[in-house]
């Protein structure tokens, strides 16, 4: 029998705990506000929906091939997270106007719909979450396309709420965070580095 309470508990805990999506949403909103971070969040939501849907349809196949591709995905995901961490930690560095303009452009690229969506496809945490969730809670009880799409939409909506919550926190405390921009960016960057090391298997 489908265990709704266990399903919701797992979804909420995993989705709302710190991860690349939430950290990036918070860091972006602390710089430019919630409204300008919304495109990134929508990109995350779209990518999240697609990963959940793909996991539902290809759960058996992905589970069979996962041991072969997991190490590669972990390395790619870890390297990308390290890149994001360095970008976040570098925002506070004083540079020339030309360099500041370039950094602003780079920051805008990281805070885009495309960036948010791509992040989901190279984030092993999201992929493994999708496979685990669908194989244990969804596929054994629901199989129609209509049901799988509804579940994927629901999971994407929860991801949207999670990222929005973190982004709103970053936006509301913008003035406070701006006074402590350097330590805040460093802490956010270190959390991302920790996530990268954990996903790569170098940190247990």
UniProtKB/TrEMBL annotation:
The chain crosses the membrane at residues 6-25, 37-60, 72-93, 126-143, 149-172, 184-203. Its main location: membrane. Keywords: Cell membrane, Membrane, Transmembrane, Transmembrane helix. It is found in: Cell membrane. The keyword Cell membrane applies. Coiled coil: none annotated. It is a multi-pass membrane protein. This is LysE family transporter.
